[in-house]
Specification:
The structure holds 2 protein chains of 2 kinds. By secondary structure, chain A is an all-alpha fold. Chain A is about 65% helix and about 0% strand. Chain A has 15 helices and 2 strands. The longest helix of chain A has about 35 residues. Chain B is of the alpha+beta class. In chain B, the strands form 2 sheets. In chain B, strands 3-2-1-5-8 form a 5-stranded mixed sheet. The chains are: A mainly alpha, B alpha+beta. Chains A and B meet through helix 3, helix 9, helix 10, helix 11 and helix 12 of A and helix 1, helix 2, helix 3, strand 7 and strand 9 of B. The complex binds protoporphyrin IX containing FE and copper (II) ion (CU).
Chain lengths: ~525, ~375
Amino acid sequence: MSTVVESHDHGHHGPAKGLSRWLFTTNHKDIGTLYLWFSFIMLFIGGAMAMVIRAELFQPGLQIVQPEFFNQMTTNHGLIMVFGVIMPAFVGLANWMLPMQIGAPDMALPRLNNLSFWLLPMAFGILISTLFMPEGGPNFGWTFYAPLSTTYAPSTVNFFIFSVHIMGVSSILGSINIITTIFNMRAPGMTLMKMPLFVWSWLITAYLLIAVMPVLAGVVTMMLMDINFGTSFFNAAGGGDPVLFQHVFWFFGHPEVYIMILPAFGIVSHIIETFSRKPIFGYSSMVYAMASIAILSFVVWAHHMFTVGMPLAGELFFMYSTMLIAIPTGVKVFNWVATMFRGSITFETPMLFSIAFVALFTIGGFSGLMLAIVPADFQYHDTYFVVAHFHYVLVPGALFGIIAAAYYWLPKWTGNMYDETLGKLHFWLTFISVNVTFFPMHFVGLAGMPRRYPDYALQFADFNALISVGAFMFGLTQLLFLFIVIKTIRSGKQAKPEVWEGAGDLGLEWTLTSPPPYHSFTVQPQVK
Amino acid sequence: MAYIRKVFTGFILVLPLIFSSLIYSESSDYNMPIGVTDVSESIFGLHMLIFWICVVIGVIVFSIMFWSLWKYRKSKGAVAADFDDNFWLEIGWTVAATLVLVWMAVPSTQVMVEAYDDAEGEINILITGHQWKWHYEYLEDEVGFFSNLSTSQEQIDGEVPKGEFYLREVDEPLVIPTNTRVRFLITGNDVIHSWWVPDFAVKQDAIPGFINTAWTNVPEPGIFRGACTELCGIKHAFMPVVVRAVEREEFDAFIAEKVALAEEERMLTSKVWTKDELMARGESFYATNCAACHQANGQGIPPVFPSLVGSQITMFDSNKHIEILMEGVQGSAMAAFGESYSEVDIASVITYTRQAWSNGEKGDGVIVTPQDIVAYKNRIDL
Ligand code: HEM
Ligand SMILES: [Cu+2]
């Protein structure tokens, strides 16, 4: 892709000063920055909760917290990491990068953009405040199965429901904006099949969000009715059906897990082609793979429910459909490897994180495949094996994708190069600790340790101690990441417009100055 | 840097090896137990088959990847080739992946059909999950009992050393006969629980309003330990499953004893009870069934579990007290104990809580007898 860029500076159009810059901003970069910082702060809050969990599980017995508080920690850790870290970080990256990658000045709906960000601190403020209420916060797991989350929930569940509604509104508004931007503001010549893969991944993700966030809103509304208005959607005593809850939840929930990985697929594709100095292998098959994953993700939801007592035909259907997803997922991995093959490869920090992404995400894919096998899932389900699976796809998967993106684009955003030595140190510490933390979870899970247990039998003690050590190390290491990011914002070697050798041909964002002008492309570039 | 890269490559390559060597060690501290039934053995075999297929694919993909990273690094002067697509290669690996999946799907389907079989059992046992204990009822003989965690709170709090079966022991295990088709009918009383015995490869959710089925046929006597695997509230980790499989004769004797005991219970209802007898019985019932929430000192954990000490109901309102025990409290963890326990148990625990913690001195100290409970039941039936 080669481009012609004309840029002129509108001196009068800079950001406002002080706090109002952030409160009232309609600029895609400012809002992207807000999203990213929000996500970063949430990472530390959710991470602190994980530290409480791991401290309690360091040894058998109850030492540090009581089971009631432990359950609040697991629940809020999950909710915050999913809705407060991974999703906002991807939206933040979309805000920053989509206009720059498609040659637009800004997002299509800038005021909506401001609203969809500022809803988030409200939602999480409400959620986190419940932890300080007398009855305590949500304690029924991030999957909040009824009737534990309805008839048997603390009354603060109403705050939780409200907060989920607000998060849902925020996501839907964000998705509308993204879809509108992609369809209407691409530079002339950028046909759909010439769009950068990150743009594709977000286009698909935005559709998934619009399809399933209303389902989530529906299920929490049904809970609200059951709790406060005497309905019995999920209350067996009133003729309702607790399993219905799970069907509706997972109809949202499984597409949701792909919402949390597709943008990372896009990011990693860009990074691998940049540092292999070779365009992505099989661009169109990458697009088709993402689209088929998205479509299939609507017909696999009950693989989370293999033990609820479905008929044989149901169990088999959901096993086969889940196994099918492994095909497009595998194709993506093969394409990444083929991109590296016969490239000219260097190992800057974003590339290291991306390589680790490919390797460790694949391990998560393998455990996913094992979990899809229904009879075997009878043994795996609700044990630490499942915890290992989804942490492999979400931490070295989604989170590594986000960290890689931060290193890859930070020089573009700030105009400063990050410190490569510190970046590599951050990578190695993270890589080691992530495996020390999550790999042994496969073993304890297979050996029979159920998930969401504040205390456990003695034969799991050694692995749990090891896991906790890994987790503390992982947590501490991310403080180093914070330090590196701040350091880069404040100083560093001046970054060139293309930042990475040869990147100038790979995408429009590299044709802009580093840092880019306030309104990214004031004149549309021409894509050939 | 080159050195680190070597370590990195090495680490990734040996990961599957570490995994697999651990996984084959005899002890089940690392791997799924083989279990004792035909089904559990088939599932174990399937698990290992899928695992090895994944390992082989992993080794192939990771070898190519790390070899490429090594061979084509720029520092060794690699120049990027100029290709970015190959239609037949894409088709090829898509087809290959599909074939591997079919290879996995066939045995998986077979094992699933084997495991899934809801025909009647010779022995049928109704398993009910309660917050936070299991109730077992032998449907043919109409006898049943609760199975509670027997690990002491002192062990959990670390005040005394933990025993060998810490958190995996109960006061009364489920007893089943060997070489008999036993069918479990599994349901929940309050929230969703899940009944899991790894050695039988049986895991079924216990859902209020539903009756799920599972079955097993255990060839050898033994004690098998499992757990609740669906988050069910505060004591989710503290309601283990223990099953004792015994020879048929021993099983029949066990049932006969249970039937006799139940008969005796019924006799006890008509007996005239003294306050001390009720107190003694009530105290031990309280310790096993109530103290988990309301605490041994009766003070509960407000606001979730209310205190029984000096409350209006425990001091002055014996009718309300009976009603709560019999019907439970909607929307709270307080279950309807009357459905599952005898009149004697209910009467004695009410009497106990009305006397204990100086409720007796400060309140009316009414003594509730099994006959009062019978009378209550008759009133409700009318
Ligand atoms: C090859 C692709 C995948 C397959 C075949 C697969 C399969 C499964 C299955 C069968 C389960 C249910 C296990 C159980 O509860 O017994 C599961 C759980 C889960 N998976 Fe995946 N998965 C795949 C990829 C992913 C990805 C990409 C993500 C997210 C980025 C993900 C996130 C999760 C999460 C969060 C859970 C657990 C939810 C919970 O119960 O809390 N999976 N997966
Ligand atoms: Cu899923």
